[in-house]
Amino acid sequence: MKKLLLSSAIAAACATSAAAEIRVGVLHSLSGTMAISETTLRDTMLMLIEQQNAAGGLLGEEIVPVVVDPASDWPLFAERARELLTVHEVDVIFGAWTSVSRKSVLPVIEELNGLMFYPVQYEGEESSRNVFYTGAAPNQQAIPAVDYFLEELGVETFALLGTDYVYPRTTNRILEQYLLDAGIPEENIFVNYTPFGHSDWSSIVSDVVALGESGSQVGVISTINGDANVGFYNELAALDVSADDIPVVAFSVGEEELSGLDTSNLVGHLAAWNYFQSADTPENEAFIEAWQAFAGEDRVTNDPMEAHYIGFNMWVQAVEQAGTTEVDAVRDAMYGQEVTNLTGGTAVMLPNHHLAKPVLIGEIQADGQFDIISQTAEVPGDAWTDYLEESAVLVSDWPGLGCGMYNTETETCVQLESNY
Amino acid sequence: MGNLIKTNRSVPIVLALLAGFALLVTVLSEAYGSGGLSVSLTKTLGMTVCLCIIALSMDMVWGYSGILSLGHFAFFALGGYMIGMWLMYARTEDVIAASLAQGQLPATPAELNDAIAVQIFGVVGGDSFPWMWAFSHSLVAQLALVVLVPGILAFVFGWLAFRSRVTGVYLSILTQAMTLALSLYLFQNDTGLRGNNGLSGLQNIPGAEAIPQSQISIWFLWASIAALALAYVFAAWVMSGKFGNVIRGIRDDEARVRFLGYSVEGYKLFVFVVSAIMAGVAGALYYPQAGIINPDELAPIASIYLAVWVAIGGRGRLYGAVIGAAVVSLLSTWFTGGRAPDINLGFYTIQWVDWWTVLLGLGFVLVTLFAPKGLGGLVDLMTRKGEAK
Amino acid sequence: MTRLILAALAALSFLASPVASQDAPDAPLQTILQTHHDLVESASRRTVQTVLDDLIASGLPEVPAFLERWQARELYMRQSDGRFVYVQDEDADPLVLIDIDSGAEIGTAGSREVDQLRANRGVQTVIGAALVQFQLLSPDIATRATALEAIDRAPEPDQMPLIATMLEAETDPDLRADAESLLLRMTIAFGEDEAERVAAIESLAGRIDVQTRAALNPLLATRTGVASQLPEDANIAAVLEPGSDALPRLEAYDILVEEGLAPAFVSADDRRETLIANIEDGQIVGIQVHSLDNEEARIAAYAALVEAGLAPVSPTDEEVDAALAAHVFYEEYREASAAVTSAAEETVSAINTRVSILEMVDLSLDGISLASIYFLAAIGLAITFGVMGVINMAHGEFIMMGAYTGYVVQTIVPDYTVSIVIALPLAFAITFGAGVAMERTVIRWLYSRPLETLLATFGISIALQQITRQIFGAQARPFTAPDWLAGSLSFNDVVAISYIRIAIFVLGVLFFCLLWLILNKTRLGLEVRAVTQNPSMASSMGINPDKINMLTFGLGSGIAGIAGVAIGLFAQVTPELGANYIVQSFMTVVVGGVGNIFGTLAGATMIGFFQKGVEWLNPSNTLAAQTYMILFVILFIQFRPKGIVALKGRAAEM
């Protein structure tokens, strides 16, 4: 029955109709390797749009979702984005997950002056005029988590394990510099990259355990992506490495990923996000209730879903304020827009197209949920990291400076388009 | 040429059709015509034409020579990478030179070079040019590499494999291993081609920033059509005459041809290398239209799909490959683009976005079982009917 | 409904609040906590010690119990008045609040009216350390073990007498051993008597556990120092020669610069900065700025600045050499006692030799394990592809179907052991059936066209993947090993292998033996070999080739299903599970040599060990290992086209 409802929602989505509607493009992979993560976001968007329509639509018009499938194929993301903007003539796009898919879409939406909301935590070092980044920048996820390791757990030897692609690479580069600045010697930082879907973890886990021989507390910073986490945590559990011995903090493991494995052996390991399903607020309760009614009783919510929730609501507010869906007007109305976070507090859209959001650190519980043990005040997202020499001089301020990559040293705008 | 037309009557027909197609898209284009053809569709068509070229090259090695290569997309992607390097370098150089010109001191060549390197490789944590970018500043050199790199790879690989008399299924699996190894190599972040991120923003042609994509896309479509026409004539020419006979002889009974005194290895190697170069050129035309190239493009599955296109189109006939690639890739685009109407069965709605792959897979099975000659076989059927009258 | 309850809750808590606000003097614990309110509410490892010191100094009898509950995250704070409380049952709604001093109920509150004070792991460790004094002499053995563990996590010198006291009375041999070992390690770290420390170090000789190494290695930590003369009193590890591998010339000079003992080089960047700082009216000491677009011009301009006294001069090579010659560079132990460091040096080097030998053993185990996974994934193919010559691209999907069978059975049968016992034969039956169905409907029409089998089965493969995605969703499904397969067989701290890998190895061996027996010792095997080598001859001998082909293909597919159950336990159950293994499986069979399960075994072993070997050489990049493994396979085939175990004679010509 749920499936049927979902189906009819999508059927409605695909039917093209008269021009007196507002169209929202949904650009998430429904097949291929990324379907595992992105189908959830498609469903989230459909739910949010359904809710908004039930509440009377937007500017008195109905919102119609246009769902396309870029099939985890990066060139196809660019092609589909162009189609959405020129053929379907959507007013805004919600979509993409991996950095490479975002980089594929960037030139197209910048050329056609489209508007996209990107909901996933990413490596930063970017600020496009046409993208609003509702996921976390490194300083909203990675840095607070490392601080927690340094301050609260007293970790002195770090293993940075990641999947070999740009998000872990850049995040680890930032973290390495951050750790060196914090006085951790270089030989106490162990870095390893594995391919997507890696499953043979035994030697890497024993390497990490062996780091303990230096006599200092070892901690793992994991940017391991998706499925590969299952094998990694299973191996940790098999070698009886508890969170007391070697704590692991993960940036890509959320409720959705945990639903694919037995968490009883992972209790106490950590994850850092801007949202956990276990956050106890009335907004979150309503959101979870709506989601489970929409997608199924056993479904969980996660951080990118909250990012879409915030992004969509901000866009709706901005459109209402601007009185039009025209991109330039909406963009101007977006700055300073506020939406209540599902975890409490308020998310604010900053001039650099990033959000100010609280950073949460949670411990994995046996039921696959997270016990929130630390929640900061809202941290403003930083497009260009302060911890790398070449980025420290760059800032992004679209309404003020009209530039997303402004060199404060030479006081010039390096480029108006983004760096893809 | 007259001889060629006699031996392969499809050549004038295909050329005429391609010319007609070029005319049609121009008339419909946004830049030069009525505007009925959107830019995104123009790009899709242009890319499809490039896929037809690689399908053609696949048909040469498989349909005519009996070498089922499951690694042809490696050559295609290498061609794309080679042109992509120039596109990225030249575009970044424009941006950086303009930015540095605002500085207080004029930039030295070394500073310019470093800044370009940081801009291109910063995203994967690098700050200097790897050795393989040595010629990236020169369009001519990179165009030469489009031909040379796939050609040399095919030569080395083919020479080793044919010399050891690796044939049939073994060769297929070996070619698959080749493309997998290459893709894994490129996936590594520090091997010089930006790892998983690949090269992006390729649709922005340096020096042509002011020209709208509606024009650029139609130019590329023309170029792709011209390349397909050339490739078609070339393939038809190679496969006609004595050379073609020997090649087909090798396909049907390699040992017998060898006993007749022909250098089987030499013939196979020639076809393999030529076909790899065609694939490389196709890739060099494809990726500036696609906009991004990354190691996923040469994952083994892409090359298997290629074999399936050729099989569906009908191998051993050049137009079959073209038809197969065009039909399957255009259908895929249509079904996954959200425009195919869903079928409501009352109790269940079939969404094509979800079920298209299933249909495609079962389609492969049916074609293999019931139409071993593929869609090209239908053409046979029609022409034979015509002859009967 | 929810709203109604909330309203009721609000009313209740309103009623409760007056009770709570009386901070009676007979609540000493609460009083102490309230003086440190913020430190308790947002406790941090670095600051919580103050609170703990006050609590322990108070000598209140409730303190140990309170600390335990705080550590266990059972402490709450009421938002309305900041009072710290326990709750009766944390799942209850509303929560019943309990006073921390008296243990009496003091009202109720909704879950959003109190904050659970979740002590983080760091704070838990600190509280644990504070609790040690209460726990170490506890009659409960588990409590004593917890206390020992707590000391081990954060050892402090003043805990040593406590452990010694505990040891006097300790009767449990395991705990005693742990305590003695801990005391030994603490002696090494904190001991004041040099001879005692050396003796302790020497007593650890030959022990390879991580704890021992963690105790010894810090003693050997060094720092690089520089001085004009080698200091007399320092515990010198080595004298470094500038220009040697250990200390390159420029690095040595950088140390001098850092210590302020020599002037710094002027880098190209410094030069640029200095030039920019001296721009006046588009000129630098008379040189036009726009002419400075190359390094030579900038060097010349900088020289002009130096001459004008506006910039520091960069040291010349001679000056660098002179500065280096005037200083001595050395590595100095952080540990002051030379006797201790030399004893540690000796013990550690002996331990390290043993550890590196054991690491090779561990690596070999990993290699065997990886090989057995490759073998298990490929063994079904060894039959369908190796023996029958059918290229089944859907083989991976049969593996996946096996894994999903395991998952589905587990959702129905909650007992993990029973579910696996059911899943194994069921997976075989399902994939056997699927294999037979595929053989009958598709493959048998294509025996004369092997390359087209590839296309048809590829079609089936992508269709099966997508259908699975439609049924089960794209998310990974949990398929959990039973408890007896969890954990690992650990020989010592270096050599360990998880039980699940052992199980996969055993399953691989079983399959190997079973298949060898079937193919070589049974009538079926004979007929299979007959049919695959010469079908027409076989059928004239009264064998039904159709039936044999069907059964053989079914067998190969069924084995893939069982392999899928095993692989699903070890990896992640997703629709792409099989696709991840298919290319490697084909390579395994081809490298090993077609037509022979010995070949597959050899192929899997070679690939597994080669990959682990490369990983060992380059531990930070697993992807490179896979790349080189495939390149190796490609080259290997060039020189041995028929694989490791090549069939000879007629059978090779099929």
Total discrete domains of chain A: 2
Give the tally of β-strands of chain B.
4
Query: What sort of overall outline of chain B do the alpha carbons produce when their principal axes are compared?
Result: globular
Helix content range of chain B = over 70%
If strands are numbered along the chain, what order do they take across the biggest sheet of chain B?
1-2
Number of helices of chain A: 14
Largest sheet of chain B: 2 strands, antiparallel
Q: Enumerate the spans of chain B where pLDDT stays under 50 for 5 or more consecutive residues.
A: none
Fraction of residues in β-strands of chain B: under 5%
Output the radius of gyration of chain B: 23 Å
Say what the CATH topology of the largest domain in chain A is: Rossmann fold
CATH architecture of the largest domain in chain A: 3-Layer(aba) Sandwich
Content of β-strand of chain A: 15-25%
Give me the secondary-structure topology.
The complex is a heterotrimer of chains A (420), B (389) and C (654).
Chain A lengths: L1 H13 L7 E6 L7 H20 L8 E6 L5 H13 L5 E4 L3 H14 L3 E3 L12 E3 L8 H10 L5 E7 L2 H16 L7 E6 L7 H9 L7 E6 L4 H11 L9 E3 L4 H4 L11 E4 L8 H14 L7 H20 L4 H8 L3 E3 L5 E4 L5 E10 L5 E11 L8 H4 L1 E4 H4 L1 E5 L4 E2 L7
Parallel strand pairs in A: 1-2, 1-3, 3-4, 4-5, 6-7, 6-8, 8-9, 9-10
Antiparallel strand pairs in A: 10-13, 11-12, 12-13, 13-14, 15-16, 16-17
Helix pairs in contact in A: 2-11, 3-4, 11-12
Chain B lengths: L1 H6 L2 H19 L10 H26 L7 H29 L8 H13 L17 H25 L4 H20 L11 E2 L12 H27 L1 H12 L1 H6 L4 H27 L1 E2 L6 H14 L4 H19 L6 E2 L4 E2 L1 H19 L3 H15 L1
Chain C lengths: L1 H20 L6 H8 L1 H5 L6 H11 L4 H9 L3 E4 L5 E4 L7 E5 L5 E5 L4 E3 L4 H15 L5 H13 L6 H10 L3 H18 L3 H10 L6 H7 L5 E6 L8 E5 L8 H10 L9 H10 L5 E2 L2 E2 L6 H13 L9 H9 L2 E6 L4 H50 L7 H18 L3 H26 L8 H23 L15 E3 L5 E3 H23 L1 H11 L1 H6 L4 H26 L8 H14 L4 H21 L4 H18 L15
Antiparallel strand pairs in C: 1-2, 1-5, 2-3, 3-4, 6-10, 7-10, 8-9, 11-12
